[in-house]
């Protein structure tokens, strides 16, 4: 916290607030003489920033669109088949002009299809077989031979 960087009404970070409570004299000296940062502290700050960016990236990925109604119903929400279909939707369908309306129509119709599947276990077996063929073709398009 240097004298030049902080003016009246400037924002104060949570770290700075914690430091004020921990060592008031340090804050006062930093205000007068400017922040003195050692090379070790710079490295630690860099590692902390990188860790924060990774945490943010993982958090944003976790909030991604997990809708895949029929595959989730047939295979389960975390099954590799469901993951392949989600990846195909995101990487191929949603990037095509014709794919976006197709996905939107699927989202309107699929919940009703799942209700039908709920009442017919034999149909689930057939849909599972059909979806496995679709998943294999999606994998081929995506080039994902590393999936289980």
- Span between termini: 51 Å
Low-confidence stretches: none
Mean pLDDT equals 82
Q: N-to-C SSE series?
A: HHHHHHH
DSSP strand count: 0
Helix content: over 70%
Specify the overall morphology: elongated
Number of helices: 7
Number of domains as seen in the coordinates: 2
Question: Would you tell me the structural class of the helices and strands?
Answer: mainly alpha
Oligomer: single chain
Radius of gyration: 26 Å
Question: How many strands, which pairing sense, and closed or not: the largest β-sheet?
Answer: none
- Strand fraction equals under 5%
Notes on the structure:
With 148 residues, this protein is mainly α. The chain has two domains: 14-62; 69-142, no CATH class. Helix content is 70%, strand content 0%. It contains seven helices and no strands. The chain has helices spanning 14-22, 24-33, 39-62, 69-75, 80-91, 99-118, 121-142. Helix 1 crosses helix 2 (24-33). The radius of gyration is 26 Å and the shape is elongated. The model has no long low-confidence stretch (mean pLDDT 82). InterPro entries: CFI_box_CTERM_dom.
Short description:
The protein has 148 residues and is an all-alpha fold. Helices cover 70% and strands 0% of the residues. The radius of gyration is 26 Å and the shape is elongated.
Task: Map the helices and strands.
Layout lengths: L13 H9 L1 H10 L5 H24 L6 H7 L4 H12 L7 H20 L2 H22 L6
Provide keyphrases for this structure.
single chain, 148 residues, mainly alpha, 2 domains, 7 helices
């Amino acid at each position: 916290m240097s004298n030049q960087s902080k003016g009246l009404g400037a924002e104060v970070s949570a770290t700075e607030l914690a430091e004020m409570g921990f060592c008031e004299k340090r804050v006062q000296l930093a205000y007068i003489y400017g922040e003195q940062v050692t090379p070790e502290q710079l490295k630690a700050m860099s590692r902390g920033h990188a860790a924060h960016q990774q945490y943010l990236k993982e958090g944003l990925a976790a909030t991604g669109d997990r809708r895949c109604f029929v595959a989730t119903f047939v295979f389960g929400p975390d099954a590799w088949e469901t993951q392949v279909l989600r990846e195909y939707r995101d990487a191929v369908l949603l990037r095509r002009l014709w794919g976006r309306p197709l996905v939107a129509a699927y989202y309107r119709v699929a919940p009703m299809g799942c209700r039908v599947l709920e009442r017919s276990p034999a149909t689930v077996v057939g849909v599972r077989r059909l979806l496995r063929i679709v998943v294999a073709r999606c994998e081929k398009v995506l080039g994902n031979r590393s999936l289980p």
